[in-house]
Write a structure and sequence with these properties.
Radius of gyration: 16 Å
Organism: Mesembrinibis cayennensis
Pfam families: HEAT_MROH2B_1st
Structural class: mainly alpha
Distance between the termini: 48 Å
Shape: globular
Protein name: MROH1 protein
Number of strands: 0
InterPro entries: Maestro_heat-like_prot, MROH2B-like_N_HEAT
Strand content: under 5%
């Protein structure tokens, strides 16, 4: 997975494809390995983190019926937290675009998902102008 930091988009794509391929035969092992890698490399640049997260998403989607319930629950929670962190990091530069996307998750009469609220809160904390109330 260290090769995800390679600047060549073809190498990055090969890593993504390899993780997805391995995830077809051993989904829980790949998901756990990706999770552990992301935990050990918490300073991994976000574009490279996204490659691993996308591979995890694909493995989960393609193998959801095969996953143990406890594994799926833990991986999904971790994946959602990591995805929220990516949005907050991107929001430090492209706040309008990220806010536009997050706000689409707010639907009248429906409570928003926990991670939508957490992302919204973390965006406001990381961007001082959002935290300031304006008349």
């Amino acid at each position: 997975m260290d090769a995800t930091t390679d600047k060549d988009p073809l190498v990055q794509e090969q890593i993504y494809n390899a993780l997805c391929y391995l995830g077809e035969s051993e989904p829980e092992e790949i998901l756990n390995a990706c999770d552990e890698y992301l935990r050990q490399h918490d300073k991994l640049a976000y574009p490279h983190r996204v490659i691993i997260l996308k591979a995890m998403e694909t493995v989960v989607k393609n193998n959801i019926a095969l996953l143990d319930k406890s594994t799926a629950k833990e991986v999904i929670r971790d994946w959602q937290q990591a995805a929220s962190n990516v949005l907050v990091a991107v929001g430090q530069r492209f706040i309008n675009k990220v806010m536009e996307e997050v706000l689409t998750k707010f639907q009248p009469g429906i409570l928003p998902h926990y991670f939508v609220m957490q992302t919204f809160a973390n965006l406001s904390v990381s961007n001082g102008e959002l935290a300031t109330c304006r008349p």
